[in-house]
Amino acid sequence: MSKLLGLDKIARLFDIIRANGGIRGSLAKLYRTDDLKVGTLVGTDKYGNKYFESPYYFYGRNRWIEYAPQHHLEYDGSQIPPEWYGWMHYKTDLPPDRDGMRPQYKWMLDHSENLSGKKGQYMPYTTTRPKVEAWTPPKADK
Predict the structure, then answer these.
(1) 3-class SS at 129?
(2) Is a pLDDT exceeding 80 seen at residue 3?
(3) To 10 degrees, what angle do helices 7-19 and 22-33 make?
(4) In a 10 Å sphere around its CB, with 0-12 CB exposed, 13-18 middle and 19+ buried, how is residue 40 labelled?
(5) Angstrom distance (rounded) from CA 12 to CA 5
(6) What are 78-96's pLDDT values in tens digits?
(7) Distance between terminal CA atoms of the chain?
(8) Alpha-carbon distance values, 94 to 58, 91, 100, 126 (Å)
(9) DSSP of 15-29
(10) 8 Å CB contact between 65 and 50
């Protein structure tokens, strides 16, 4: 009878609000990520990002990330390290902390996010003159 009246959905809503820190925490998370979900914490990477999973949601939407608080609203997909990228995109079902087959070599660099459009972006240096030069109008004599 409760499923018929939709009371199980209301109970699920209260569970999601409780899991996200009450009404204030849920509103803050909703403002930051535009989504409220509840699931099991699978792991945390060294940058502070938390990875979750829940079989309640559709396949393809049942794994998600909550970015570290230091990113505020400036987060993007390039902040996911490659080992967690594989888990997020269903290339493997084992999170990196439980997968012993991942190669680790001394020549492998640490992950860094894409800084395009930010202060630390890569700007190439060139010594050649541009093909097109800006025109400056001649000064009028009075």
Answers:
(1) coil
(2) no
(3) 90
(4) exposed
(5) 14
(6) 999 988 999 999 998 899 8
(7) 92
(8) 19, 9, 9, 45
(9) HHHHHTTHHHHHHHH
(10) yes
